[in-house]
Amino acid sequence: MIISPTAPAVVCLLSLGLSSAQEISDVWQTTWNRTSLFQFQNQSPVPTFTSKVASAISNIVVNEAKVYQPVLGFGGTFTDSSAQLLAGLKVAIFVDSTQHTANSLWYLDDELNELLVSPQLYVFASRRRPFCWPELPKNTPWCNRLFNGSYDEVDGDLCLNDLDVNSARPYIFEILKDIQSINNMLRVHLLPWSPPAWMKDSGTAFGGALQEEYLPMFAHYLLKSLEAFQSKGIKVYAISVQNEPMYETTTDPTTTYTPEIEGQVATLLKKLMIMKGFGDTKLIGFEQNWDQASGYATQLMKVAGGAFDGVAFHCAAGSVGQQDAFHAAFPEKEIYLTECSGTLGTDWWGDTKVWLDLFQCVNVTLTQEQWYMDNIFIGSIEHNAQTAMMWNLVLDASGNPMLPGATGCGTNGCRGIVTINGNGTWSVNQEFYSMAQASKGIIPRDIGGPSARRIGLAVQGTMSAALRVGAYVTYRTSSKDAPRYSLVVLNWNDNASSGWNPQPVTSTIEFRGKRATFTFPVGVTTLSWYAANITQLATREEDFLVGPMERDGHSIPSESGLKFLEFNPQSTVGQSEGGCSALQ
Ligand SMILES: *[C@@H]1O[C@H](CO)[C@@H](O)[C@H](O)[C@H]1NC(C)=O
Ligand SMILES: *[C@@H]1O[C@H](CO)[C@@H](O)[C@H](O)[C@H]1NC(C)=O
Ligand SMILES: *[C@@H]1O[C@H](CO)[C@@H](O)[C@H](O)[C@H]1NC(C)=O
Ligand SMILES: *[C@@H]1O[C@H](CO)[C@@H](O)[C@H](O)[C@H]1NC(C)=O
Ligand SMILES: *[C@@H]1O[C@H](CO)[C@@H](O)[C@H](O)[C@H]1NC(C)=O
Ligand SMILES: *[C@@H]1O[C@H](CO)[C@@H](O)[C@H](O)[C@H]1NC(C)=O
To answer: At a CB cut-off of 8 Å and minimum separation 6, what does 417 contact?
Structure first.
C-alpha cells in the first residue's frame, strides 16, 4: 500500500497513544473497608503525565529500562475438595437453571464464571493438585484431601500396567477441561505428595522415602501421568517431583527426598519427557519454604540443575526476600511461589489478625490482607517469582469438605479463594481480591499474547514507606499496539500498629521524565496506561527476553549420575519374564 509521507505519521501517533500526555484511565480499586471491591474507578479529571515536579511526599519512579522476569499469573490449588464442590455446583446448576444447557455447562452463574475463568479478569496460574495420591487417615491435621489412592495401587505392578488416572475422581478431568475450554490461559501444574506406597521403604504414603530400586520406576510413573493427562485433553504446563521433600509425618501423605535423590528422579524424568514429546513441560523442584532457598533448593540445582526449569517455594517458613539469594545464585532458573493459605475467621483488613500457619501450626500475628500484597502478590514477584498461588481454590464456609475427623487448618479451618455453600451460593474472599488486583496489572493484553514483565521501580519521598508497589509492562502481539504499563499499589498507611487512622497518600508517578498525580486510598489500587514501545532504546540490566521462558525446547540434561538409573525392565527387582513393553 502506498501512502503519503505525512498521513501515516498521524495514524501512528493516534494508534500508539503517542500524544505527549499518556493518561491513566484504567483504575481498579479495593479499599480497606470494602466500599470498593475490585471496582473500576472513573477518573475525572483523568490523571495525565505532564512536566509537573515530583511530590516530596511520595514519587513512584517507573524505570522501564530494567526489564525483569515474566509474570505468568496468579491462581489456586485445585484440590479434590475444590473439585468436589465445583462438581456439585455444576450438577445443581445443570438441573436448576433454564439458562444452562448440556452444551454450555458453567459451574456458577455468569458473574463468578467471569471471576474464575475469564481471561479478561483472572489468570488461573499453574498450581493444580488434581490428585492426592495416597491413602488418607481419619485424623489428618491437613486440609481437604478426599481422594485417598494413587494412580496405581497394585502392589508390585512393575510395568505400571495398572496405572489409571481414572482412579482419581473423573470429574476432576471434566472440570479442568471445562475451565480450559473457556480460559485459554489455564496452566496446570501437577504435584505428587507421595509415590505409590509399594514403591516406598515405609510401605505407606505417610512418610518414608522412595526405595532406590524404584527410582526409575517412579520417574516412569510421573511420565505416564503426564501422558494420561494429555490423553484426557489436559495440557500440563509443569510437573514437580514431590511436595515438601523435607517434611515427614505419619498423619499426612509425605515423602522425604535428599536433593540427590530428587535430582536423580528429575534427571531421568526430564530425559523421558524430552524423548516422549514433553520437552516444553516445565520440571520444577523443591516445593517447600523460603527458609531453604540457600539450602535444599540451592543444593538441588547444584546436583541436578540441568534437569530443572526452576524451583517452587511455599510461604510457611522464612521470608520472601530469601528468594533473591536463590535468584542470585541461579539467575536463569524460574521461581514460583506455589503455596500459602488463609484460615477462617481472620479479619479482612484492618485489625491485627492471627494468621494460623497451616503447616507448622504456629500463630503468626499479621494483618492479613496487607500480608498478602506485601509478601505474595507484590512481594514474591518483586523477589523474582513468576507466579504466586494460594492453597485451595474453593472450599465451603467451614473449610470443608474434609474427611471425617480431619482437623485441617487448626481449629478454624482453611479458607478457599472462593467459598461455595451447600445451597449453591458463593462468595469470594480476601485472597481473591488481592489476587484480582494483582492480576489486573499483569494479565496478557492480547489473547495468546506476551506475559507481563516486572520492570524497574523506586518509591521516593518522606512517605515512601506508606506504599508497596509493583510495576509491570505488557508487550503486545502486534508492534503497532502500544504496550501497557501498570502499577499495583498497596497503601497501608492505616496506623494499625499504634492506633487506627487510615490516610490516603497523594503521590506523583514518574514515567519517561513526566509525572502524573494520583491519590491512593488505604487499600489496593491497580492502574494502567499505554505508551509507545521505546524499550529497544533502553539498556536492559536484566533481560529475560531471550531467557528460559522463551526457549523453544530443552537440551538433554546431563547424563552424569544417570548410569545406575538406566531403566532396564529385564533386570528390575521382581520383574516377571518378558519385560515391560509399556515402559520401553
Ligand atoms: C479410601 O477410600 C475408600 C472409598 O473411597 C475407602 O473404602 C477406603 O477405606 C479408604 N482408605 C483409607 C486408607 O482411608
Ligand atoms: C493462636 O492464637 C489464638 C489467640 O491467641 C489462640 O486462641 C489459639 O489457641 C492459638 N492457636 C495455636 C494453634 O496456637
Ligand atoms: C446459603 O447458605 C449460606 C451458608 O450456610 C447462608 O449464609 C445463606 O443464607 C444461604 N442462602 C440461601 C439462599 O439459602
Ligand atoms: C517492545 O520492545 C521490546 C524490547 O525491545 C521488544 O522485545 C518487543 O518485541 C517490542 N514489542 C513490540 C510490540 O514492538
Ligand atoms: C497513630 O496512633 C498513635 C496511637 O494511637 C497516635 O498517637 C498517632 O497520632 C497516630 N498517628 C497517626 C498518623 O494517626
Ligand atoms: C472507606 O474507605 C475509603 C478509603 O479510606 C474512604 O474514602 C471511604 O469514605 C470509606 N467509606 C466508609 C463508608 O467508611
So the answer is: 76, 390, 392, 393, 394, 428, 429, 431, 432, 435
pLDDT for residue 297: 98
Over 90: is that where the pLDDT of 285 sits? yes
Domain ranges of the chain: 18-70+450-544, 128-167+186-339+557-584
- Probe ligand 3: pick from 396, 420, 421, max atoms within 8 Å of CB? 421
Are 18-70+450-544 and 128-167+186-339+557-584 equal in CATH topology? Answer: no
Other Cβ atoms closer than 10 A to 128: 30
Residue 537, SS3? helix
Among protein residues, the one whose CA lies closest to atom 8 of ligand 4: 475
What pLDDT, in 10s, does the model give residues 348-359? Answer: 663 222 333 333
From the CB of 109, is ligand 1 less than 6 Å away? no
C-alpha cell at 155: 502392589
Confirm or reject: Cβ of 536 under 6 Å from ligand 4: yes
Chain centroid to Cα 76, Å, comes to: 7
Average pLDDT over residues 480-491: 94
Give distance in angstroms: CA of 508 to centre of ligand 2. 42
CA distance 25 to 48: 9
Q: What is the pTM of this model?
A: 0.80
488 C-alpha vs ligand 2 centroid, how far in Å? Answer: 33
Residue 264, C-alpha cell as written in the block: 536423580
- CATH H superfamily, domain 128-167+186-339+557-584: Glycosidases (3.20.20.80)
pLDDT of residue 5 exceeding 60: no
In 52-106, beta strands by DSSP E: 59-71, 73-76
- What would the mean pLDDT of 10-16 be, rounded to a whole number? 36
**Residue 435 to residue 387: CA distance in whole angstroms:** 11
Distance, in Å, from the CA atom of 370 to the CA atom of 350, rounded to the nearest integer, reads 9
**Cβ(303)–Cβ(260) below 8 Å:** yes
- CB atoms closer than 10 angstroms to residue 354: 17
Residue 344 has pLDDT above 90, yes or no: no
Q: Which ligand number lies closest to the CA of residue 206?
A: 1
How confident is the model at residue 172, as a pLDDT?
Answer: 72
Please indicate whether residue 512, judged by its CB atom, sits closer than 6 Å to ligand 4.
no
pLDDT tens digits along 208-254: 999 998 898 889 888 888 888 888 888 888 899 998 999 987 766 78
Buried b / exposed e over 52-62, threshold 16 CB at 10 Å, is eebbeebbbbb
18-70+450-544 sits in which CATH class? mainly beta
What's the average model confidence in pLDDT over 122-145? 26
Q: Establish whether residue 57 lines the binding site of ligand 3, counting it when its CB lies within 6 angstroms of any ligand atom.
A: no
